[in-house]
């Protein structure tokens, strides 16, 4: 546990919970997730985190056992793409945001992006 008053970096706990769900590859109870994460948290804290991740659309849940079991809705790649979409939808000049993103790409990533944009889409 952290010392009293010491806070974890934002998103650290949610990232640990998501990583545990991805590693399990199957729906898990809050108690099972609690055992799989490196932090020493109460089961109720893990259940609260799972509920928040459900509210954000990152985790799904269904009845199982005496409560719910939880599963990741997206893999790590889908989650990164979702974050990128959120940034674009957050307002501001979309063209400028995209231009700055492209400016920051290394040549290999820029070439890959160009290749992907030229692919035929269904």
Number of DSSP helices?
6
Number of strands: 2
Specify the overall morphology: elongated
Strand content: 5-15%
Straight-line N-to-C gap: 50 Å
What is the string of SSEs from the N terminus onward?
HHHEEHHH
Q: From the helix content, strand content and strand pairing, which structural class follows?
A: mainly alpha
Spatial extent as radius of gyration:
18 Å
Main sheet: strand order: 1-2
* Main beta-sheet strand count, sense and barrel state: 2 strands, antiparallel
Helical percent range?
55-70%
- Rounded mean pLDDT is 87
Give the uncertain stretches in residue-range form. none
Write the layout of secondary structure elements.
Blueprint: H1 12-24, H2 30-36, H3 43-55, E1 59-64, E2 67-72, H4 76-89, H5 94-103, H6 107-118
Overall description:
By secondary structure, the protein is mainly α. Helices cover 57% and strands 10% of the residues. It is built from six helices and two strands. Strands 1-2 form a two-stranded antiparallel sheet. Helix 2 (30-36) crosses helix 3. The model has no long low-confidence stretch (mean pLDDT 87).
């Amino acid at each position: 546990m952290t010392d009293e008053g010491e806070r974890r970096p934002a998103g650290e706990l949610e990232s640990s919970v998501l990583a545990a769900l991805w590693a399990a590859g199957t729906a898990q109870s809050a108690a099972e997730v609690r055992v799989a994460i490196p932090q020493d948290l109460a089961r109720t804290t893990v259940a609260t985190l799972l509920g928040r991740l459900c509210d954000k659309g990152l985790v799904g849940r269904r009845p199982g056992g005496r409560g719910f079991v939880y599963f990741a809705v997206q893999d790590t790649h889908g989650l990164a793409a979702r974050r990128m979409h959120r940034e674009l939808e957050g307002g501001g000049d979309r063209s400028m945001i995209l231009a700055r993103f492209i400016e920051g790409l290394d040549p290999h990533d820029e070439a890959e992006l160009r290749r992907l944009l030229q692919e035929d889409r269904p």
